[in-house]
Amino acid sequence: MKLPNPLTKRLYVDRINEMLLPEPVERDKGKDAAKKVYQKGDMEDLCRFVEEHYFMVFRNRDYRWANELTVKTAFLTL
Question: Which residues, other chains included, contact 50 with Cβ-Cβ below 8 Å and sequence gap of 6+?
Fold first, then answer.
């Protein structure tokens, strides 16, 4: 899941992250959970964070249109 260039990251991934998690403290918690995956291979904290924070912003009608791209986007923003 590597991004093609830094401009894409700033324009899309970082903006989505800021829209879904407007509070910097919450974004930092997500980044810390993501680091645990890279450092130790432990996905439990990251999965819990995504469930508790990202998926809370979706409404029930949004789940109809959700697919693997939704999950990939959530993980890319972290």
Answer: 74, 75, 78
- Domain coordinates in residue numbering, the chain: 29-78
Q: Give CA angle at 52 (11, 38), nearest 5°.
A: 60
- The answer to whether the CB of 27 falls within 8 A of the CB of 21 is yes
Q: How many CA atoms does the CB half-sphere of 58 hold within 13 Å?
A: 17
* Closest among 78, 24, 69 to 47, alpha carbons compared: 78
2-12 average pLDDT score = 69
CB 75 within 8 A of CB 50: yes
Q: What is the 3-state secondary structure (H, E, C) of the chain?
A: CCCCCHHHHHHHHHHHHHHHCCCHHHHHHHHHHHHHHHHHCCCHHHHHHHHHHHCCCCCHHHHCCCCHHHHHHHHHHC
What pTM, to 2 d.p., does this model score? 0.59
